Structure formats: structure tokens, C-alpha cells
């Protein structure tokens, strides 16, 4: 008997979701599945993963993948050989550059790219085409942090490490729903709270899941972040809680920053009034910060996504500089990036106002990078930032655009206007791994199939400057290729073959590392020269390493590196700069037409436009439909009901969303998540609503305070459709697509009566099949079979009852009966008790089941875990469990 071949070792790779950069161990399985667990050796997560990471194995199927190059012929896209597609791209760019100059072309990149992809694209545009017109969707999430770092430190340097969260006695979370958006880090924070009594302060206009672990919650008014931290700086000065020696030896500009802070926030009472927070809570926060040496301030999109985001970042940094709490264990400002490689994109110059290796558009840096690349045509000035880039496209100034791994027609502000601008392009090239999205629909001329997670090979850098490997564990499907290879081949066809002779990702990484060390000598923060001579085998085996890693200093997989502990910054005089922020104000005022403010963000179990996370049935169950969250007072004013529908409008667009009435929302404010696109919902593209106002320093758009209005929409009937081939729905039907264990389904809402839906079932769904149906005054159900095989089903009725059909699988398994009437009892069989909205995605545990367990005696999330298993796997649901337990017990006591 032959010995059984040993199972292959798990592949160590990195999660493709948020900026935490969790290490994973992956074992590929059969039928496009994989077993994914946390890597206990990775220093970013030590084996922990969130609900999204835990379900990655459900998301790697080839459904909807772009597998072959396509070129537009007339009004249709047709398959083409790689050589033809690449020639078309290269020839198109060369023609437009020769006619209109290099600034007539642009690249729009993504934090989903690997560092090697980013590097090659930036090198081609900035060194060989000769334009700065390379920007990235990271402009939408962390550009204000970049600008704030550069103003204060002289470089885009994140001072600390995640381990600072373990040694902090005070953690301040501002503009960050960390429990949902960076759940692995949040678990680290709550562990510090449990183990060492670390205090957690949450500052946010919304009461989010993160607040469940807060010792103090400050629900500040939108746009008042700078007021709060200016007030803190004043308080630190008045209570003599300043680091006088650090200020004198290592900083400049303190006096002018303090004068401006006193103008903005002269007293605690003034801060409380401007921010809309109780005076005693402001005083408590100020006192905790002043008296707690080991304090870390974490900030994310709520700070960055603002037309004054850079000033907000600098107001936070000012307080850490003023106390000398920077660059030492357990203290400092910490920017939490949103994407897995936003930091890697910054390292290679992925932003239009940067050159590679953290160099800038100065004469010295332009010359240095040009000599290193032997570049024939270096860009000599900054390019167009994201919003300005698409405005230039609309004006006809940019005539060719290459979009890689992102969907700007969905994610940018005024997304409808972006779509119209794209239609004006002479050449729109899209490198993607999905065949259809909003940007493709705008009129792509060339589609290039790119590798997806699991097929890619290269590196990413997380929020704490830690470089990790993403490794291949799946074969390239169809004719898909890595993004770096695609750009490399276009560059060669444009006449730059000698400079783009890369054989693999390791070649690119070595050049990237060498550039970081070129003429550096400690004058620039980003230096990974120690990695410039890695062999291919050493690159393949490379353990996570935090930069800086200069030549001569062996890189360490563990241990933490911090900047600025000795006060040496990257400004000309090596001193940090205090920045005097402008007086805070919101760029667009509310009025009678738009009396509310729209805030946007993420939900726990979805990611960006759901092209990956949306494939998981477990993740879809948590928040299955696009929604708008509204305060009860505003709901009454607008005539809204919880679980109803509303039309949300701004000056820029309209969406129709489910209504969630919540007292966690401030009066006068709305919240809507960003994840749904035209491919997944009928009217939920939130980018359509967002203001195009941008920060003057960072170019980051205002996504948190767009003036808006809301009105009720009446859909008396709800239901769902499941079909092998989804039909075209009747005009005016509200719908959203969600993944299920059986594939996918459309949830629908409609004002058409049941008779009209019965006709739809007969005329559309059952045109060539056998139909089994049940009709009653408040519910219509139908199952359709073709040649004995299940084809489609429809359930529609008054209220939410039609969404539940527990016997559907039995109906499908039984097939078409000879006696249709005998099937009616099965179609209408009583449903099992509803588990309520899913809270624990790992085990499918619903809110109602959790509340029942509390009423039966459970008193804590730990009790719930022992009873229902909820919260015992990835832990992402623990804040919601805690809230449900507390709320249910309070109601029982009342």
C-alpha cells in the first residue's frame, strides 16, 4: 500500500481587509474553499482574527471574476489576447501623451494593491511618463494623517506601535469605531482595560459599539474635534502639565499654537458649549489626559475624512508634543489606517503629492529619484489629488485614465458626476478581478484581469509600519495576472523595457528597498536598506518586519521600533512643529432644504463595495440591507418608522434605504454605511450623496457632515427572490442582493400589490417552467421548476413575514409535485421562531436568542458564550453582546 502523501503545510499570509495587517494561516480546500485561522506567530494579531478574516475561506470562488482581457468594440466588450490588450493600452497612452502631454493621462490606484504593484505604477507615471497624476483611494481614508504627520514631524511617520496599547493607562479613541473597523486592535485595548485598568475614552458624534467598553464617552458635535483638542492644549498649559524640557529642546511654534488654541477654545465651558458635551465630562477627559503619562490617542476616518482633517490631526499631535508623550512605550498619537496596504502605498509615493520612499517634490528629491531610476522624464510637480483628478477628467483635461483595484464611480464624492466624467475619457483602462462594477459600467475601453487575494505574491505594510508577506496559495485563474506584471508589460511596450525588466515581486521589492536607502544616511524616516539584498528564497521566507530597517541593522520579526523618543524629527532643524489650526467650521451649512447632516462609515462584517466580503453568507446575515440610522426625534419629525424605508437626499444625489431608529444617533444627524453599489442594491450608492469639499492640505474629502434631508417612503410589501438567473424586476422595485448558503437572493420591497407579483411569477419566473404557488390575502409564495430542477422562488407579503420561509429547502428538494394543491401546506407551513438580527456571524446567533438567554438567567457575555457559543470565536461581536445583555437586564429590572 502506498503511503499517503503528507498534507501541504499551511500558507502564512496576510489578511486583505483593514490596516491592522493580521497574519493568517491558510489551508486551501476543495471546491474553491479554504480554512483560514489567525497566525499565532504574527506580531500584529498573535493569532486573533475578526469575523471578516474568519470567513475569508467562503470568498474565494470564481463567480463574477474577470478572467480574460477584454476590449471595447462598439457598445460591447469582447475577449482579446493579452498581447492585443496590452498593445491597445500602451499605444493609447503614447498617442495621447504625444498629442496632449503627460498631464493628459492619470493612474488611480488602491490600498488593495500590493507594495510591488504600487511601486511599478508610480515609477512608470512619475519617472517615465513624466506626470505626477498618480493618486489612490487611500486619499479618501488617510491623506489627512499623512499631511498632519508631514507638517508636524517633517515626514509621514507613525511614531509608535501596537504594543503601546498594551502599556497605555489611557487610550483615547477619536473618530474611530474601533470595535467594528479594527476589531483585533479593539480586543487588545479591552484586554488592557481588564488586565491593567486602562481607561478608554471614546470621542464620536455617534454612540457606536466601541462605546460599550468606554469609561467616558464624549458625543461631540460634528466638526468640533479641533475645538476639543485645542481646549485640551489650553488646559495642559494652565495646569502646568506640559513637558517643558521637551518643548524647549525638540519643538518649535508652541507659543503661536497655544495662542490659536486659546482663540478657539478659551475655557472648558466654551469647549463644552461648542462641542455639545457636558462640562464635567470635558473636565474629566482633560484631567485624565493631563495626569496620565502613558496615553495613546488613536484616530481614524472620523478625523481624517473632513475638509479640516489635517488641522484635526495636528490638534491631536500638538497635545502629545506638548507633554512629550511621543515615541516612548505606551504613549503617542496612532493613526489607524483603513486599508491593508495604505501604508505601503505611502512608502512608494502612491499619493499625487509624494515621490517614492517618502521623498517629496523638491528639486533635491526629484533629482535623487530620477538618478536612481535613470528616469528619462521625471515629474517635476505634484499631480492631481483624487477629487481634483476626476474634476479634471470632467473638464476634458485628463483624457486617459488607468484604474487599478478600486471603484471610483461608487466610492468618490458625487459618484454620479464621477460616472459621467468617466464617459468623457478617450481611454479608460481598468485592471480588476471582478467583471462588473460601477466604474466598468461607466464605459471601460480595456479590461485587464488582475490577480485576487490568495493569488497575489508580494508585501503589504500595516498601520504600525510592519511589512508582511502576502503569499500565493491559489493558482492564477483563467488568464489573470498580477497587477505589477500588467503595468510592467505596458511599460515595456511604451519603450521602457530596460527599466521594467522585473521577473517577479522579489525583484521589485529589492529595488524599492534600495531606493529607500539611496543617499539616506538617516536623513529620511523610511529606510529598509537591510532588505535590499534579499535573495528570492529569503524574500519568500521573509518574516514580518517593522521599519526602519537600515542596512547594517538586522531586521527583527518581533520587537517594536519607535520614532522620536530622542526628539530627532525630520524637519530641517530636526525639531517638531506645533501647528496653529484654523478656526474650525463645516464647509457646507444646513438649511431649510437640507436640515440634517449625513455621516458615512462602515459596518462590522462588510468591506468596501463587498466584492469579497459580500460573498460570505455568514457576513451578510449581520446587516443584510443598506440602511440609514436616525435619532427617534428626527424619525418622528419625518414620519419614519423603524424597519421602514426612507429617501435620503443631499444636493448631490438621492438614495432609498432601510430605516434604523436609534438613540445612539445624535438629533440632527444621519448615518449610512458605504458598502452597497449599483451591483448590490437599487438605490444605496452612498458616494452619490457625499460632499466634494476637500481639505486644502490633504485633498481628502468631507464624508462625515454633508447637509441632507430625509423623507418616508412607503413600501407595504416585502419579500425575496431566489433564482438561478436573476430576472429583471418591475420598475420601481427596491432591492438588495445578499449571499445565502444556496447562492444569493434579492430582498425586495414594493408598492405593487400581490396580484401583480403573481403575474410576475407566471409571466417572468415561470415562463418555461412548472409553478407551485400559494395565495392568501397577505402572502404570496411561488416555486418554479424547469425539467424537474429548481429554477426560482418568490415570497412577497405584508410586513417582514414573507422574508422567512423555513420550508423552502424542503420544497426545492421535493421537486414539482403532480398535485400542485398538495404542496400548498408546505408552502405555508408555520415558521420556526425568528432568531432576530444576527449578532454573532461565526455561529449564526441572533439577537432574540441572546435576549432569551438573558431572560433565562445569563448575566454576562461569558454566560452567553457558554450557552450559545456567541462571542467565543473571533470576538468581534462582544461589544454588541455586552450591550444586549445590559439592555435586556435593565428592561427586566424595570
Would you kindly provide a written description of the structure presented here, covering whatever features stand out?
β31 (779-786) and β32 (789-798) form a beta hairpin. The longest helix is centred in the N-terminal third of the chain and has 19 residues, at 82-100. 32% of the residues lie in helices and 19% in strands. By secondary structure, it is α/β, with parallel strands linked by helices. The protein folds into 6 domains: 11-58, Single Sheet (N-terminal domain of TfIIb), CATH 2.20.25; 70-140 and 341-546, Rossmann fold (3-Layer(aba) Sandwich), CATH 3.40.50.740; 143-335, Dimethylsulfoxide Reductase, domain 2; 596-713, Barwin-like endoglucanases, CATH 2.40.40.20; 717-827, no CATH class; 838-893, Arc Repressor Mutant, subunit A.
* Oligomeric state as shown: single chain
| CATH topology category name of the largest domain | Rossmann fold
The parts where pLDDT drops under 50 for at least 5 residues are none
Tally of separate helices? 31
Just name the CATH architecture of the largest domain.
Answer: 3-Layer(aba) Sandwich
Largest sheet: 7 strands, mixed
Instruction: Please report the first level of CATH classification, the CATH class of the largest domain.
Output: Alpha Beta
Amino acid at each position: 500500500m502506498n503511503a499517503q502523501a503528507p498534507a501541504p503545510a499551511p500558507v502564512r499570509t496576510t489578511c486583505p481587509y483593514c490596516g491592522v495587517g493580521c497574519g493568517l494561516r491558510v489551508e486551501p480546500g476543495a471546491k474553491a474553499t479554504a480554512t483560514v485561522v489567525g497566525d499565532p506567530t504574527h506580531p500584529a494579531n498573535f493569532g486573533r482574527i475578526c469575523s471578516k478574516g474568519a470567513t475569508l475561506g467562503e470568498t474565494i470562488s470564481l463567480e463574477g471574476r474577470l478572467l480574460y482581457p477584454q476590449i471595447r468594440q462598439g457598445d460591447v466588450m469582447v475577449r482579446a489576447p493579452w498581447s492585443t490588450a496590452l498593445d491597445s493600452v500602451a499605444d493609447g497612452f503614447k498617442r495621447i501623451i504625444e498629442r496632449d502631454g503627460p498631464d493628459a493621462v492619470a493612474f488611480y490606484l488602491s490600498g488593495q494593491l500590493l507594495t510591488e504593484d504600487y511601486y511599478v505604477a508610480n515609477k512608470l507615471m512619475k519617472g517615465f511618463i513624466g506626470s505626477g497624476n498618480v493618486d489612490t483611494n487611500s486619499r479618501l481614508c488617510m491623506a489627512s494623517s499623512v499631511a498632519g504627520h508631514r507638517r508636524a514631524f517633517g515626514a509621514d511617520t507613525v511614531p509608535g506601535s501596537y504594543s503601546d496599547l498594551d502599556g497605555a493607562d489611557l487610550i483615547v479613541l477619536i473618530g474611530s469605531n474601533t470595535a467594528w473597523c479594527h476589531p483585533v486592535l479593539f480586543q487588545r485595548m479591552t484586554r488592557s482595560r481588564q488586565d491593567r485598568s486602562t481607561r478608554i475614552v471614546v470621542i464620536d458624534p455617534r454612540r457606536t459599539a466601541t462605546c460599550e467598553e468606554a469609561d467616558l464617552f464624549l458625543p461631540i458635535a460634528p466638526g468640533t474635534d479641533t475645538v476639543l483638542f485645542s481646549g485640551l492644549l489650553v488646559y495642559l498649559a494652565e495646569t502646568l502639565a506640559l513637558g517643558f524640557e521637551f518643548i524647549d529642546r525638540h519643538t518649535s511654534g508652541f507659543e503661536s499654537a497655544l495662542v490659536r488654541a486659546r482663540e478657539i477654545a478659551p475655557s472648558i465651558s466654551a469647549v463644552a458649549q461648542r462641542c455639545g458635551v457636558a462640562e464635567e465630562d470635558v473636565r474629566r477627559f482633560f484631567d485624565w489626559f493631563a495626569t496620565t503619562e502613558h496615553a495613546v490617542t488613536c484616530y481614524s476616518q472620523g478625523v481624517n475624512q473632513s475638509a479640516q482633517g489635517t488641522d484635526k490631526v495636528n490638534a491631536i499631535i500638538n497635545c502629545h508634543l506638548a507633554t512629550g508623550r511621543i515615541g516612548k512605550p505606551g504613549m503617542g498619537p496612532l493613526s489607524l489606517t483603513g486599508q491593508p496596504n495604505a501604508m505601503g502605498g505611502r512608502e512608494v509615493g502612491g499619493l499625487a503629492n509624494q515621490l517614492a520612499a517618502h521623498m517629496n517634490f523638491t528639486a533635491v528629491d526629484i533629482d535623487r529619484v530620477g538618478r536612481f531610476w535613470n528616469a528619462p522624464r521625471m515629474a517635476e510637480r505634484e499631480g492631481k489629488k483624487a477629487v481634483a483628478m476626476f474634476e479634471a477628467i470632467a473638464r476634458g483635461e485628463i483624457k486617459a485614465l488607468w484604474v487599478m483595484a478600486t471603484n471610483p464611480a461608487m466610492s468618490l464624492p458625487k459618484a454620479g458626476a464621477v460616472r459621467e466624467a468617466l464617459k468623457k475619457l478617450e481611454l479608460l483602462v481598468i485592471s480588476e478581478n471582478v467583471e462588473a462594477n460601477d466604474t466598468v459600467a461607466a464605459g471601460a475601453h480595456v479590461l485587464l484581469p488582475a490577480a485576487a487575494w490568495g493569488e497575489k505574491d508580494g508585501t503589504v505594510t500595516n498601520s504600525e509600519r510592519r511589512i508582511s508577506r502576502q503569499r500565493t496559495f491559489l493558482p492564477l485563474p483563467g488568464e489573470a495576472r498580477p497587477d505589477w506584471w500588467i503595468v510592467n508589460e505596458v511599460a515595456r511596450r511604451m519603450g521602457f523595457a530596460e527599466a521594467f525588466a522585473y521577473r517577479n515581486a522579489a525583484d521589485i521589492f529589492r529595488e524599492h528597498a534600495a531606493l529607500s536607502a539611496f543617499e539616506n544616511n538617516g536623513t529620511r524616516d523610511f529606510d529598509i536598506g537591510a532588505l535590499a539584498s534579499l535573495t528570492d528564497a529569503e524574500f519568500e521566507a521573509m518574516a514580518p518586519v517593522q521599519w526602519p530597517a537600515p542596512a547594517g541593522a538586522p531586521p527583527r520579526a518581533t520587537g517594536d521600533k519607535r520614532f522620536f523618543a530622542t526628539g530627532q524629527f525630520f524637519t530641517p532643524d530636526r525639531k517638531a512643529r506645533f501647528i496653529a489650526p484654523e478656526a474650525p467650521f463645516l464647509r457646507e451649512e444646513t438649511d431649510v432644504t437640507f436640515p440634517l447632516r449625513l455621516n458615512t462609515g462602515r459596518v462590522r462584517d462588510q468591506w468596501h463595495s463587498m466584492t469579497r466580503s459580500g460573498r460570505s453568507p455568514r457576513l451578510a446575515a449581520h446587516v443584510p440591507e443598506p440602511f440609514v440610522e436616525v435619532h427617534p426625534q428626527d424619525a418622528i419629525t419625518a414620519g419614519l418608522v423603524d424597519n421602514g424605508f426612507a429617501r435620503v437626499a443631499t444636493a448631490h444625489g438621492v438614495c432609498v434605504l432601510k430605516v434604523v431608529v436609534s438613540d445612539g444617533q445624535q438629533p440632527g444627524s444621519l448615518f449610512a454605511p458605504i458598502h452597497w453599489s449599483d451591483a448590490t442594491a437599487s438605490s444605496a450608492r452612498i458616494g452619490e450623496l457625499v460632499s466634494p469639499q476637500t481639505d486644502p492640505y490633504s485633498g481628502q474629502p468631507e464624508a462625515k457632515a454633508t447637509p441632507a434631508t430625509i423623507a418616508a417612503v412607503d413600501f407595504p410589501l416585502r419579500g425575496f427572490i431566489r433564482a438561478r438567473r436573476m430576472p429583471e424586476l418591475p420598475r420601481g422595485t427596491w432591492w438588495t442582493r445578499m449571499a445565502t448558503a444556496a447562492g444569493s437572493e434579492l430582498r425586495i420591497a414594493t408598492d405593487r400589490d400581490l396580484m401583480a407579483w403573481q403575474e410576475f411569477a407566471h409571466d417572468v419566473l415561470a415562463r418555461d417552467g412548472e409553478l407551485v404557488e400559494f395565495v392568501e390575502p397577505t402572502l404570496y409564495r411561488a416555486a418554479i421548476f424547469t425539467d424537474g430542477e429548481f429554477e426560482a422562488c418568490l415570497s412577497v407579503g405584508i410586513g417582514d413575514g414573507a422574508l422567512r420561509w423555513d420550508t423552502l429547502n424542503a420544497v426545492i428538494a421535493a421537486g414539482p409535485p403532480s398535485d400542485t394543491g398538495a404542496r400548498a401546506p408546505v408552502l405555508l407551513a408555520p415558521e420556526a421562531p425568528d432568531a432576530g438580527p444576527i449578532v454573532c456571524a461565526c455561529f449564526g446567533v441572533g439577537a432574540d436568542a441572546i435576549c432569551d438567554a438573558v431572560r433565562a438567567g445569563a448575566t454576562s457575555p461569558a454566560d452567553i458564550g457558554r450557552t450559545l457559543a456567541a462571542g467565543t470565536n473571533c470576538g468581534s461581536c462582544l461589544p454588541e453582546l455586552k450591550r444586549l445583555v445590559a439592555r435586556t437586564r435593565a428592561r427586566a429590572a424595570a
